[in-house]
Write a structure and sequence with these properties.
The complex is a heterodimer of chains A (292) and B (126).
Chain A lengths: L5 E10 L2 E11 L4 E6 L5 H9 L6 E6 L2 E2 L5 H4 L2 E4 L11 H9 L7 H10 L13 H13 L5 E5 L7 H16 L4 E5 L3 H7 L2 E6 L2 E7 H7 E7 L13 E7 L2 E7 L3 H11 L2 E6 L2 H8 L2
Parallel strand pairs in A: 3-8, 3-9, 6-7, 7-8
Antiparallel strand pairs in A: 1-2, 1-4, 4-5, 9-10, 11-13, 11-14, 12-13
Helix pairs in contact in A: 4-5
Chain B lengths: L11 H14 L12 H8 L3 H13 L3 E2 L7 E2 L9 H21 L4 H16 L1
Helix pairs in contact in B: 1-3, 2-3
The chains are: A alpha/beta (292), B mainly alpha (126).
Chain lengths: 292, 126
């Protein structure tokens, strides 16, 4: 029962000569919420599509509840919910008709949840999809992915076209769903603060590699920014332990470091006769600094 | 009951730890007081429930909160109503050092900062 929801080993994907994903290995356990961050083109959507079996890895494999993602049997597919970046709705249908089509694939469709969400999110079941706004269509896509209460929920930029109110409602609903115990969630977003709220673990994709993988708290506790002030006009020739990047200004150096401690600080200050001020960083700042 | 800022560099679970410790130290939270459920906090602040349970279980390990099966989390009966001044001072120490730093950067004198603090204090007392 406690099998991993997703298990990837040495997953690689190339389009022609271009490697989009290099050699990714990871696991998602039930109960985890993974926040996927990366610049445009970092490979986020490609990764999520491989997990869903929408495309075939160039090498390696990804398994969903133990089944190879391109060969998921029906009972495994029914445990997965997906909110795509671009909706896959049938525009000629009404909301109610679209909901019926999707519900028919799932014996355990939660009609009560869906009608509650329609009410809360202001989606009119009689509305024709082609006449709805992008935001309303996104709400509907989210409902379609929630309706069968999937054990694995994969969301690709689910909030991109939602207004702040709808986004908050969506987040609250996602918290409710993920609070029901053993559900695994993988979601990508450029809205770093949403990932900060919800994710228990962070993947930072950079040029097709898992540049950082770990829990959000240790990331925040590990990475910090230092403001190093020195007396003279020339930058002292110091080596900063655990440095990720550094920039010199007049009479000070700003550096981003990993695992800075008071003990390190004290010996550093004494050794180079400088004063150091340490600043903790939010996820957005960390993300930006890791890409400098 | 909590002020949570997910964008801060301080992890959310630590924000909760600090606030509960402070409220217990000051006697604002008294032994036997019920804490809101993990789910309540998670939904109302739209944050991951595991983050809240992590904070709660650390507070339990510290002996500040206790949990009886099937009952809500409560402030532990053994946690004395108010901890000594020295312990309470320890808890605002980080905030004070931030103020001191900012004051030095702004080249404000001690007297000026103390006057400001006193003013705030009296304002809140009214």
């Amino acid at each position: 029962m406690n099998e991993p929801a997703v298990q990837a080993s040495r997953l690689r994907k190339s389009f022609g000569p271009r490697d989009v994903l290099h050699d990714l290995s990871f696991e998602v356990r039930p109960g985890e919420v993974i926040g996927v961050l990366g610049k445009n083109g970092a490979g986020k959507t490609t990764l999520l599509e491989l997990m869903l079996g929408y495309s075939t890895p160039s090498s390696g494999e990804v398994r969903i509840f133990g089944a190879e993602s391109q060969r998921m049997p029906g009972d495994v597919k029914r445990r997965v919910g997906f909110v795509p970046q671009q909706d896959e709705l049938l525009y000629q249908l009404t909301v109610a008709e679209q909901l019926r089509v999707i519900a028919s694939f799932y014996p355990k469709w939660d009609h009560e949840l869906i009608s509650r969400l329609c009410g809360a999110w202001g989606v009119d079941p009689q509305a024709r999809i082609k006449s709805m706004s992008v935001g309303e269509r996104q709400k509907l896509s989210i409902m379609l992915a929630f309706g069968h209460r999937p054990d694995l929920l994969i969301l690709d930029e689910p909030v991109a076209s939602l207004d702040p109110l709808a986004r908050r409602q969506f987040l609250e609903q996602l918290v409710e769903l993920s609070a029901e115990g053993q559900r695994a969630v993988v979601f990508s977003s450029h809205i770093v603060s949403d990932i900060e709220r919800l994710a228990s673990r962070i993947w930072i994709l950079k040029e097709g590699r898992l540049f950082w993988e770990g829990d959000l708290e240790s990331l925040k506790e590990s990475v910090s920014r230092l403001h190093i002030r020195f007396g003279g006009a020339t930058v002292p020739n110091f080596e900063i332990p655990g440095v990720i990047n550094q920039r010199a200004q007049a009479q000070s150096v700003t550096a981003v470091v990993r695992d800075w401690t008071p003990a390190i600080q004290q010996s550093f200050e004494e050794r180079y006769s400088v004063t150091v001020e340490q600043e903790s960083l939010g996820l957005e700042e960390i993300f930006l600094e890791l890409h400098r | 009951m909590f002020i949570l800022n997910p964008n801060s560099g301080i992890p959310i679970y630590r924000q909760i730890l600090e606030q509960v410790r402070r409220q217990i130290a000051s006697g604002q939270l008294k032994p036997g007081d019920e804490m809101p459920s993990v789910r309540e906090i998670a939904v109302s602040h739209a944050v991951n429930p595991m983050t809240i349970s992590k904070a709660y279980s650390l507070l339990q390990a510290e002996g500040l909160l206790e949990h009886n099966r099937g009952k809500p989390m409560t402030v532990a009966s053994r946690s004395r109503a108010q901890s000594p001044v020295s312990r309470r001072l320890e808890q605002i120490e980080p905030l004070v050092s931030q103020v001191a730093l900012a004051a030095r950067q702004l080249q404000l004198s001690q007297a000026e900062v103390i006057r400001l603090l006193r003013g705030k204090w009296e304002q809140d007392d009214e």
